[in-house]
C-alpha cells in the first residue's frame, strides 16, 4: 500500500473518474482506507490469500 495524491474529476456511487496520480495497473482503494498503513500487504476482495 502506498499513499498518493490523485486528482478526481468525478465521484459517483459506482464509478470514479481520476484525472491524474495513478499509473497503468494501479488499483485504487475506495473503502476501508482509514485502516491502511504504508507498506501494508493487501489482497483484492474475492481472491485467495
Overall form: globular
For the largest beta-sheet, the strand count, sense and barrel status come to: 2 strands, antiparallel
Helix segment tally: 0
Mean pLDDT: 89
Class from secondary-structure proportions = mainly beta
N-to-C terminal Cα separation, in Å? 16 Å
Quote the beta fraction: 15-25%
**Biggest sheet: strand arrangement:** 1-2
Using only C-alpha atoms, the radius of gyration works out to 12 Å
- How many β-strands, per DSSP? 2
Percent helix, as a range, is: under 10%
Order of helices and strands: EE
Stretches with pLDDT under 50, minimum 5 residues: none
Summarize the structure in words.
The chain is mostly beta strands. The chain has a domain at 1-25. Helices cover 0% and strands 20% of the residues. The protein contains no helices and 2 strands. Strands 1-2 form a two-stranded antiparallel ribbon. The model has no long low-confidence stretch (mean pLDDT 89).
What are the defining features of this structure?
two-stranded antiparallel sheet, mainly beta, 49 residues
Amino acid at each position: 500500500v502506498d499513499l498518493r495524491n490523485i486528482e478526481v474529476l468525478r465521484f459517483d456511487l459506482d464509478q470514479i473518474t481520476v484525472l491524474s496520480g495513478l499509473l497503468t495497473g494501479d488499483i485504487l482503494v475506495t473503502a476501508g482506507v482509514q485502516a491502511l498503513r504504508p507498506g501494508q500487504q493487501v489482497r483484492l476482495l474475492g481472491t485467495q490469500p
